[in-house]
Amino acid sequence: MRRAGVVAALLAAGCITSRPKMSSSELYLTERMATVLLSEGNAAEAENAFREALKQDPDNPEMLNGLGLSLLMMSRAREAVPEFDKAIKIAPGKGSYLNNRGAARLETGDTAGAEDDFLKAYESPNSGDKESALINLGRSRYRRGRFEESEESLTRAIALNPTFDALTARGVTREARQNEEGAVSDFLAALRLKPENPSALLRVGLGLVVMQKTDLGHRYLRRICELAPDSVEATRARVLLGEESTFRPH
Questions:
Q1: CA 139 from centroid of its chain's CA atoms
Q2: Is 228 left (phi over 0), alpha (psi -120 to 50) or beta?
Q3: DSSP for 101-160?
Q4: Average pLDDT of the chain to the nearest whole number
Q5: Per-residue pLDDT tens for 141-198?
Q6: Closest-CA residue to 43 (of 79, 90, 17, 18)
Q7: How far apart are the C-alpha atoms of 65 and 108, rounded to whole Å?
Q8: How does pLDDT run across 152-165, given as a tens digit for each residue?
Q9: Contact at 8 Å (CB) between 177 and 154?
């Protein structure tokens, strides 16, 4: 991306760090660039930009949280947790920071710590924080095999806001509970939000085949092959179209 390349050039050339102290405008530019890079999924360059900003503004909780997210996106959860710790120490009770630290803790295997963060995040007055906390709790409980509790958390999240993530997460949980009809219903609702999502299409196709609605299921499987022929989902769909199976994607 051109914007990402500009940031890399600035950092590499020392244009941002050539003076001992950034001006307020330079710091603002660096912080904005870091945030944009993170939103675009460019975690490596976002990490560099966040670190540059933190050299000048070490107690900025948004920059600390952003650095933690960059590390988490690169599967460096153990490194991310201390950055979230610092952000939360400066801004206790911030729901988004607690959700993010919980997600990092979950990746490190600290399930109890993760769920504690998610429960605290749910206490946030921000509805988005509450929604994320419930989705995170649902996913955490799914990993632990607590499927009934997982579905309960996700149902509460959907009541707040029926997002694609909440619907698909509950669909997966319902599959685990062998509620094929409920699972397919969730994935169909998710497809109304993202009609060409290969994963949701595959889940619907599989569910319908398991429910012995084979012809209809195959229509969804063929749709994947049309929309994303080189995807993993299309490969699985072609296997199913060749020989019926109750295979589940991981």
A1: 11
A2: beta
A3: HHHHHHHHT-HHHHHHHHHHHHTSS-HHHHHHHHHHHHHHHHHTT-HHHHHHHHHHHHHH
A4: 90
A5: 999 999 999 999 999 999 999 999 999 999 999 999 999 999 999 999 999 999 999 9
A6: 79
A7: 17
A8: 999 999 999 999 99
A9: no
CB of 166 closer than 8 Å to CB of 131: yes
Structure tokens at 62: 């948004």
DSSP symbols for 78-102: HHHHHHHHHHHHHSTT-HHHHHHHH
User: Which residue matches tokens 């952003």?
Assistant: 66
Find out whether 70 and 46 touch, Cβ atoms under 8 Å. Answer: yes
Q: Which of 158, 167, 92 is nearest to 131 (CA)?
A: 158
Q: pLDDT band for 113, please (50, 70, 90 cuts).
A: very high
**Pair 222, 204: CB distance under 8 Å:** no
Q: Could you give the 3-state DSSP secondary structure of residue 64? A: helix
Q: What is the pTM for the complete model shown?
A: 0.83
Q: Whose CA is closest to 249, among 190, 182, 201, 199? A: 199
Cβ proximity of 175 and 248 under 8 Å: yes
Residue 181 near residue 211 (C-beta atoms within 8 A): yes
- CB 89 within 8 Å of CB 100: no
Task: Report CA 72 to chain centroid distance, whole Å.
Answer: 10
